[in-house]
Amino acid sequence: MKFNLFSTPIFMTNIDLDKINIEAEIVENKWYSNTNTSHGKKNKLSKDGYHYLMTTIAKTIMPVLPGCSKVNLLNIWKNKYITEDFQENHIHTESHFSFIIYVKGASKTVFFAPHKNLIECFYKESFFDQTYQSEFRPGQIVIFPSYLEHMVKKSSNIETYAGNLLITNIDEKKAMIEKVNDANGYVCE
Ligand SMILES: [Fe+2]
Predict the structure, then answer these.
(1) Are 27 and 159 in contact (CB under 8 A)?
(2) Cα(14) to centroid of ligand 1, in Å?
(3) Which of 17, 87, 99, 178 could disulfide-link 143, Cβ–Cβ 3.0 to 4.6 Å?
(4) 35 CA distance to ligand 1 centroid (A)?
(5) Per-residue pLDDT tens over the stretch 156-183
(6) Comparing 89 with 185, which gets the higher pLDDT?
(7) How many angstroms does the Cα of residue 91 sit away from the middle of ligand 1?
(8) How far is the CA of 2 from the centre of ligand 1 (A)?
(9) Is residue 185 part of a domain?
(10) CATH number of the domain that 146 lies in?
């Protein structure tokens, strides 16, 4: 008998790109990788786009969440990999789950096992997988625990949306108030 302990849940589903369009005021080079991104800038989703995105995400991950959980969108942004651009290894802090929506071009995201350093230290040969080189295509969304380290390999002509999610209990007083309205949709800054 064999069973795996402490596995990492990764969710993938199709998403209609025509229903999600992020208006970003400023796109600039950021992080050591100088990635072209609107992260940390004003990003706006229409009200309908917000509801479609959150319904898709909630339906996908809700089966593994405790009862009464609410999925909140913390932020969303767009990334552009123009010519041989990349993004260094990173995690998404202060959130529970993160997501990447592949808008243009095949995915170049590589995920790293949380215990990859231990594997490297103790195993001369590769008994255990340390990386996963994804093969997602445009029109797919991948949702993963925010602690999972990942990077983007050198890529050209690729576009993604990325975002962070916080899970709250709907009974908690601290549950986030939805920041979406008819006039402005969802805006994160
Ligand atoms: Fe990321």
Answers:
(1) no
(2) 19
(3) 99
(4) 11
(5) 999 999 999 999 886 665 556 677 877 7
(6) 89
(7) 6
(8) 32
(9) no
(10) 2.60.120.620
